[in-house]
Amino acid sequence: MSSFGSWYDEQKAAENGGASNSNWFSIDTDEVLPLFNAENLQGFSFENMKQTMEGQMPKKILGMGYQQRFKVFCALLFLSGLFFALAFFVGVPMLALKPQKFALSFTCGSITFMGSFGIMKGPYEHLISMDTL
Questions:
Q1: Reduced to 3 states, what is the DSSP secondary structure of residue 44?
Q2: Is residue 8 in a domain?
Q3: Spans of the chain, pLDDT less than 70
Q4: pTM, whole model, 2 decimals?
Q5: Of 6, 36, 91, 92, which one has the greatest count of Cβ atoms within 10 A?
Q6: Which domain holds residue 105?
Q7: CA–CA gap between residue 99 and residue 48 (Å, rounded)
């Protein structure tokens, strides 16, 4: 198997009318791009990668599998976005008259945002990652 560097040298030599200038620009692509070397990809398969990733994820959290947790995560994330939008578009203009509108909607947005990630990782792991315990 020829490398790109040798092919490039051959093309350059052909352009120069056969004058060999092979040391002008020579790159060993196996050294420059070791991840794309064919020997490194021998045991790679997407199925092995999927099994490895699933092995790292906990199977059940709060009685829900990964797909159910992801759906709840998306719903809570969307709900937090609505609360934040409500806080900024309704609460901020009314801040001088009724500050509790902003405070309540922003607090609910923050709780649902943190809750979405708590559902995804697990409540205990989420609290540990926030350094609260």
A1: coil
A2: no
A3: 1-2, 17-44, 53-59, 132-133
A4: 0.54
A5: 91
A6: 29-129
A7: 54
